[in-house]
Specification:
Blueprint lengths: L1 H16 L11 H20 L12 E2 L7 E2 L7 H18 L3 H51 L6 H66 L3 H46 L3 H22 L1 H4 L3 H38 L9 H34 L3 H9 L2 H26 L5 H18 L89
Antiparallel strand pairs: 1-2
Length: 537
């Protein structure tokens, strides 16, 4: 007993003296690198939770009901600002590694951060392109309105207004008829569904009753002699067959009733509690009222045509100034930034899905440039339509339209090349990982009017050597998102762009270790653990 007390006291003294030595420990380069990588990863995840789609949503205060606005500890970040911070973190994490394994991990994280930063820049460029498109559409609409007003003094204006009024009323009648048809279709399906549901309920109830009888017979048979249990088990078998027959019949009725249920469900979704029906009805009523007033005031529009032309011209000039300012100050800068980063060496990857994601981003970048060319062509066409024949002929002789078309064809070829490259990169990737990206390729090709040849090999059903991690390559399931606004990459340190409208205070999604290779489904099972030894007797 005394010996045990001495040993316990010695262990207690040793355990209490060890914490005093913690302050004397000097972290090794590997420990410092691991700490730095962890810190950078946490910063990147914090950045991902603060990203907002539009710079207009960036705010450092939060309104509080019944009180003053509360100051946020960290404000939201616009995509461009988040991209800058991610690139800074990528530089930090590259210089933070201590060991060879940490350098590989840091290189992988830095590549992901730069790739996500490029995706954020691309998303910001798309936002600016949408603003430009809205302005260009507004300018084209106003120029088109001027052309329409120039013809408003036509003597047939009242007839045209009457035709528009009749068309609006016809649209309202057609819409009301379609709603009535959907309601009638749902009622018909409900009528046909009632006997089927009743039959299903009856058969299921009878089957459940038979189940109870079967359990009772089995319980009696278990406590009876073999000679007495045999008829009980035979009776239970007969009832079991009857219950199975009832369930099969109920299943058949259920399959027969499913189309009716689908019809009722779809019709109810389309008609009951649908705000779009009320909005559409309101819109059609407004159109009918508007066309009626237009019919009444058709004769007076000719007198106000010149005044309206002047107003629309002033609005078009104002929008054109905003368009030029947006193009020179924001769009061209963002375009140059993306162009510099999308072809940078830091984005290259050995992983097939990462290569495909970068190629898709290049195709999106080309699509944005094509949209800008389309805007210029639209504005040029709308402006030439307002010119006199001599002026329009002189503008056409300058060759501006031909240059824009040639530029568009070149960008379209670049987009097609990028999409083909993305498709080829996915040729050896398993179907689960390749399907979403192949779908994105098909959608982008359809939007651009590109026909991507379908000559690539079908995706492999399992993980191959091409998709397994090599050297500093990321795992096959760690592909860069095609759009950081909708599909952020859940990787340590590679904070993706948060989805628009997402809660900035929501915790980040759990991440996986980038240095851990994907499990091989074909690998043999591990040897079982040895059985524990018997205790000494």
């Amino acid at each position: 007993m005394n010996r045990a007390r001495i040993l316990a006291a010695t262990a207690l003294l040793v355990s209490t003296s060890l914490p005093a030595c913690n302050g004397l420990h000097t972290p090794s380069p590997a420990e410092q690198g691991a700490k730095k990588v962890t810190q950078v990863t946490a910063k990147a995840r914090a950045i991902s939770s603060r990203i907002t789609y539009s710079p207009d949503a960036v705010s450092r205060t939060l309104p509080v009901e019944g009180g003053e606005a509360r100051e946020l500890a960290q404000g939201l970040l616009a995509p461009a600002d988040a991209a800058k911070e991610l690139r800074t973190l990528a530089t930090e994490v590259t210089a933070a590694a201590g060991s060879d394994s940490q350098r590989k991990e840091a290189k992988t994280l830095a590549t992901r951060m730069r790739r996500d930063a490029m995706m954020l820049d691309l998303m910001d460029l798309e936002r600016i392109a949408q603003l430009k498109s809205a302005l260009a559409s507004g300018i084209a609409e106003r120029l088109s309105a001027i052309r329409s007003i120039d013809a408003s003094g036509d003597p047939r204006a009242p007839l045209e207004a009457a035709a528009r009024s009749k068309a609006s009323q016809g649209a309202k009648a057609a819409f009301d008829g379609s709603v009535s048809e959907e309601t009638e279709r749902a009622n018909t399906a409900r009528t046909a569904l009632q006997p089927l549901d009743a039959s299903i309920d009856e058969k299921e109830t009878n089957a459940e009753a038979l189940d109870i009888d079967i359990q009772t017979l089995r319980a009696k048979a278990a406590t009876s002699t073999p000679s007495a249990a045999l008829p009980l088990m035979l009776d239970a078998r007969v009832k079991l067959d009857a219950a199975q027959t009832l369930r099969v019949a109920a299943s058949g009725d259920d399959r027969e009733a499913e189309p009716y249920r689908s019809t009722v469900r779809i019709a109810d979704m389309a008609t009951k509690g649908n705000a779009e029906i009320a909005d559409t009805t309101k819109f059609l009523d407004a159109r009918i009222e508007e066309s009626s007033k237009a019919e009444e005031g058709a004769k007076a529009r000719a007198n106000a045509a010149l005044k309206r032309n002047a107003e629309l011209g002033a609005e078009a000039v104002k929008l054109m100034k905003e368009f030029v300012t947006l193009d020179t100050e924001l769009f061209q800068t963002a375009l140059k930034n993306v162009e510099e980063n999308i072809n940078a060496d830091g984005l290259t990857a050995k992983n097939s899905t990462d290569q495909a994601a970068i190629a898709i981003a290049k195709a999106r970048f080309a699509a944005i440039q094509i949209d800008a060319v389309d805007q210029a062509m639209t504005l040029m066409s709308a402006t030439q339509a307002l010119m006199s024949p001599a002026q329009a002929k002189g503008a056409g002789a300058s060759g501006g339209d031909a240059q824009l078309r040639a530029q568009r064809d070149k960008l379209l070829a670049n987009a097609k090349t990028a999409l083909v490259e993305a498709r080829d990169a996915l040729s050896g990737v398993e179907a689960a990982a390749a399907s979403p990206m192949l779908r994105s390729i098909a959608e982008l090709a359809a939007a651009l009017g590109i026909e991507v040849p379908t000559t690539a090999a079908a995706p492999a059903p399992a993980t191959t050597d091409d998709t397994a991690p090599k050297d500093d390559a990321a795992p096959a399931n760690d592909a860069a998102p095609a759009d950081p606004a909708t599909d952020p990459a859940a990787a340590p340190g590679a904070a993706p762009a948060a989805a628009p409208g997402a809660d900035p205070t929501a915790p980040p999604a759990p991440a996986t270790d980038p240095a851990e290779p994907a499990a091989d489904p074909k690998a043999p099972p591990a040897d079982p653990a040895p059985a524990p030894e018997e205790p000494n007797k």
